[in-house]
Design brief:
Blueprint: H1 3-27, E1 44-50, H2 55-58, H3 65-75, E2 79-83, H4 92-104, E3 109-113, H5 123-143, E4 147-150, H6 161-180, E5 185-189, H7 198-208, E6 213-218, H8 226-233, E7 237-242, E8 245-246, E9 251-252, H9 255-265, E10 268-273, H10 281-299
Parallel strand pairs: 1-2, 1-10, 2-3, 3-4, 4-5, 5-6, 6-7, 7-10
Antiparallel strand pairs: 8-9
Helix pairs in contact: 5-6, 6-7, 7-8, 9-10
């Protein structure tokens, strides 16, 4: 006889408790944003190649992006990074055709890559960059990739790092919100300008505060103390680009030392060759890929 009363009493009490929890939650101070870190341990290192490596042949022919996808089969690598500079179009039929070709040949896309400049003092220009990223997020979704590389951009003359960080974060945060709805991560590349310092990259990511934001870690683009800066960015790396030099003029980069950092940091993801050597890419790319595969085998636990 008391069951109905007890149930009503319970629901009333539970409702009041939920309300009090809700009020309590809103009264608590906001937790400061924390960077989303990769889990440590069990490095999983996958070989890859950026289409940019074959720019000599892709820019004006005779190579197509379809040809590039098939090089992954020939080179026996785990995936390819689709540099969108060489796409014929962004029409769905073209993008879905690339996706189907890759699937039928067992070639995953490690991601897509675009050029952006979010370090803009003009709000109108930042809005334009945001719309550009959104459009490419849509294209990346059609392509079937889960990662999109973006650039921070150059610091305008007279501007400070702090200003540049704020402009980039202000643009990248809504871009990540948009990408999150499609399950796509935006990786800001270490690419000179505002991202020439690991500290700037980490501060941008802290302010963006999104699980769909990360660092597209190009190991060759830190002009000073590269190993320390690579190590700082590794916990937040969502993709990597590999060259065997750094700085201008070029200085040799010890890939063995870099891979030790990958292993210690438990990096899991693609190590994509982005060849820029003087040798013809048809012979230079396979040599760089051979070194990458050798190091992956040595340092990956999977």
């Amino acid at each position: 006889m008391s069951t109905a009363f007890d149930r009503r009493d319970f629901l009333k009490t539970a409702g009041l408790a939920a309300a009090s929890l809700s009020v309590g939650a809103t009264a608590l101070p906001a937790r400061p944003p924390e960077l989303i870190k990769n889990s440590v341990g069990h490095p999983r290192l996958l070989s890859g190649c950026c289409a940019y490596s074959y720019r000599k042949y892709l820019q004006h022919g005779p190579m197509t992006m379809e040809d590039f996808i098939l090089t992954a089969v020939e080179q026996e690598i785990d995936g390819v990074d689709m540099t969108t500079y060489y796409f014929k179009s962004t029409e769905p039929s073209y993008l879905l055709g690339l996706r189907r070709l890759a699937f039928r040949n067992g070639v995953p896309f490690s991601g897509a890559a675009i050029g952006t400049n979010m370090c803009q003092p003009d709000p109108t220009k930042r809005a334009t960059e945001l719309e550009k990223i959104k459009q490419w997020v849509d294209s990346t979704e059609l392509l079937g990739a889960s990662h999109l590389r973006v650039f921070g951009g150059e610091i305008p003359k007279g501007a400070t790092d702090e200003q540049g960080i704020e402009w980039v974060a202000e643009t990248m945060k809504p871009a990540c919100d948009y990408a999150a709805a499609k399950g796509i991560t935006l990786g800001i590349e270490s690419h000179g300008g505002i991202t020439s310092k690991a500290a700037n990259i980490l501060e941008i990511l802290r302010r963006v505060d999104s699980p769909y934001a990360g660092c597209n870690l190009d190991i060759s683009n830190f002009p000073e103390d590269p190993y320390t800066q690579i190590e700082a960015c590794l916990p937040y790396a969502t993709h990597t680009h590999i060259r065997d030099f750094y700085g201008e003029p070029r200085k040799p980069l010890d890939l063995e030392q870099v891979w030790k950092l990958f292993a210690q940091g438990g990096y899991k993801g693609f190590t994509s060759a982005e060849y820029e050597g003087e040798e013809d890419p048809k012979t230079g790319v396979p040599k760089l890929l051979a070194r990458i595969k050798e190091l992956n085998k040595k340092y990956s636990t999977v």
